């Protein structure tokens, strides 16, 4: 719940979301509906009582102890996704919530290997996601791009084979997917292991980002930048542990896609005040604020903005700067950025004029 008087402004701000895993938008309600419709057996209650009901599952989410503890539920959850219509419903759920929160542009991650390994074709996943994207554009005016993530808990050759699939290549070539990312278990999984893919993606014009410095050390952020050529870093929470690297990230203008509620939920920090918002602002490091896996962490993008505000009491100008950074750091065309920058200017001017 927002406590700050700025919360109506936070609602109105035109938001860009750069760190949302579509599979992490699977609500317990849709999870149980699709499990039943698709005849998917969830873990029996004698093995994991968390699947006894939606409420039990939600209660279990409140007790996540780490990234890997969460990832177990994330992968079991997405096993209910089978048909293109399931992926469409999933993405539509997210776009509906994002629209209500004032998101104008969304760059959405998906994990092809987690679907291919269960026999769901890449074309099926992308067909459903693309239908929801078209609806989001026409009904809400949200611009959407998709980013395909590789799973770092699997052997690297699995990622290489996925990247090499003709249907995956085709989706980069025709622009249905504009970028690659690296996600899943971070501890002991240095990003440089995926160098082959990232080196091949650059010349194809594919945008590059990677999760780094969520649970892993700041050195993984340096690897993602220097070895993988990443233009953005997902999370990057532990950047503040290396002042020289922090200076370099600020100078290069590399944007972190922070996910504050996720970091608290997965025990990467003890509480919201430990998310280094103030340190990053003071050091001139660019960042956007995002939801990560909103259905699991109980917070969509506006909840994240409000939680940051309640912990850091930022000024209107600081919020304007955060939103401007997000717009400018988005992987959309300049014309779209200009529209959003204009809207941002208007919202802030109107807010100040209203004297609130
Ligand atoms: N927060 C996160 N970190 C790494 N991989 C993820 N996959 C989904 N959410 C993730
Ligand atoms: Zn993430």
Automatic annotation (TrEMBL):
GO molecular function list: adenine deaminase activity; zinc ion binding
Entry EC number(s): 3.5.4.2
Occurrences of domain Adenosine deaminase (ranges): 14-346
Residues bound to substrate: 293
Subcellular location: Cytoplasm; Nucleus
Binding site for Zn(2+): 19, 21, 211, 292
Any one GO biological process: adenine catabolic process
Domain of life: Eukaryota
Keywords noted in UniProt: Cytoplasm, Hydrolase, Metal-binding, Nucleotide metabolism, Nucleus, Zinc
Required co-factors: Zn(2+)
Keyword Cell inner membrane: no
Record site: Important for catalytic activity: 235
Task of the protein: Catalyzes the hydrolytic deamination of adenine to hypoxanthine. Plays an important role in the purine salvage pathway and in nitrogen catabolism.
Protein name per Swiss-Prot or TrEMBL: Adenine deaminase
Organism from which the protein derives: Aulographum hederae CBS 113979
């Amino acid at each position: 719940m927002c406590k700050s008087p700025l919360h109506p402004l936070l609602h109105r701000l035109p938001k860009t979301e750069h760190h949302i895993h579509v599979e992490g938008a699977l609500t317990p309600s849709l999870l149980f509906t699709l499990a039943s419709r698709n005849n998917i057996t969830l873990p029996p209650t004698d093995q994991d009582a968390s699947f006894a009901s939606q409420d039990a599952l939600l209660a279990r989410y409140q007790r996540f102890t780490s990234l890997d503890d969460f990832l177990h539920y994330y992968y079991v959850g997405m096993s209910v996704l089978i048909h293109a219509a399931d992926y469409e419903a999933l993405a539509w759920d997210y776009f509906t919530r994002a629209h209500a929160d004032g998101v104008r542009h969304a760059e959405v991650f998906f994990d092809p290997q987690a679907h291919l390994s269960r026999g769901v074709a890449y074309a099926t996943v992308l067909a459903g996601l693309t239908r929801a994207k078209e609806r989001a554009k026409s009904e809400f005016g949200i611009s959407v791009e998709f980013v395909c993530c590789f799973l770092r808990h699997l052997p690297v050759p699995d990622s290489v084979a996925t990247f090499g699939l003709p249907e995956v290549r085709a989706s980069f070539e025709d622009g249905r997917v504009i970028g690659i990312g690296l996600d899943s278990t971070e501890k002991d999984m240095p990003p440089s292991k995926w160098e082959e893919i990232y080196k091949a993606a650059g010349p194809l014009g594919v945008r590059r980002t990677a999760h780094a410095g969520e649970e892993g050390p700041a050195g993984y952020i340096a690897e993602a930048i220097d070895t993988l050529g990443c233009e953005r870093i997902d999370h990057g929470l532990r950047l503040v542990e290396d002042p020289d690297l922090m200076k370099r990230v600020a100078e290069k203008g590399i944007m972190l896609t922070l996910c504050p509620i996720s970091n608290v939920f997965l025990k990467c920090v003890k509480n919201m005040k430990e998310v280094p918002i103030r340190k990053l602002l003071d050091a001139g490091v660019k960042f956007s604020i995002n939801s990560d896996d909103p259905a699991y962490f109980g917070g969509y993008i506006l909840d994240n903005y409000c939680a940051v505000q309640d912990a850091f009491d930022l000024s209107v100008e600081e919020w304007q700067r955060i939103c401007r950074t997000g717009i400018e750091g988005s992987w959309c065309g300049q014309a779209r950025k200009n529209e959003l920058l204009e809207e941002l200017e208007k919202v802030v001017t109107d807010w100040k004029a209203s004297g609130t």
